[in-house]
């Protein structure tokens, strides 16, 4: 049986923070899920102040909600929509979040996160940093993460209509709304990077729906 950490809850991914990796590769390491979970449990132990009963860590997998057992763990035969995982943790250094979809299997992406946490912890051993400074970059990454993707086409169109601020925008075709929003959001036209990313995500949703 897999040694799922008691301090970690699991669930389906709601939104991926940014764009999924287009070309993934096979992992250069090989390990069982049980081994990975034990490593992760050890790193959770070292990152939280106490082993309180409340869940201090969360693992999100791209598996439908119905593919999780009553105890919150995924069924062994559950098939993910993509291999990306997001591991987050309320640590004594702050809230940390680690998304990873580098490899072709979600188990390998989870192991990559576990090994990264192990490596970060070992930095303190050699006196290179103090008070968990090596984790600060991940706090900043989370604060500036790309906005979540739009759940539906209607959401994407509604955003473009509101952002474009065009007269009778609700009646304009999606292609027109997109062009107006791109012009307004572009950094060279007085917009900003965050707004332009959001418009780009709306464009992706429209293309997926065949509206462009």
Plain-language structure description:
This protein has helices at 33-47, 106-125, 136-143, 153-164, 174-185, 193-208, and strands at residues 8-12, 57-61, 85-91, 94-100. It is α+β, with helices and mostly antiparallel strands. It folds into 2 domains: 8-143, no CATH class; 153-208, no CATH class. Strands 1-2-3-4 form a 4-stranded mixed β-sheet. The longest helix has 20 residues, at 106-125. The relative contact order is 0.13.
Q: TL;DR of this structure?
A:
With 212 residues, the chain is α+β, with helices and mostly antiparallel strands. It has helices spanning 33-47, 106-125, 136-143, 153-164, 174-185, 193-208; strands at residues 8-12, 57-61, 85-91, 94-100. The chain folds into two domains: 8-143, no CATH class; 153-208, no CATH class.
Can you write the helix and strand succession as a string? Answer: EHEEEHHHHH
Helix percentage range: 25-40%
Number of separate helices: 6
Tally of discrete structural domains: 2
Low-pLDDT regions: none
Strand order of the largest sheet: 1-2-3-4
- Per DSSP E runs of 2 or more residues, the count of β-strands stands at 4
How much is the radius of gyration in Å? 20 Å
Quaternary class: single chain
Task: Kindly name the structural category.
Answer: alpha+beta
Rounded to the nearest angstrom, the distance between the terminal CA atoms is: 48 Å
What is the 3D form? elongated
The portion of residues forming beta strands comes to 5-15%
Q: What's the mean pLDDT score?
A: 80
What's the story with the biggest beta sheet? Answer: 4 strands, mixed
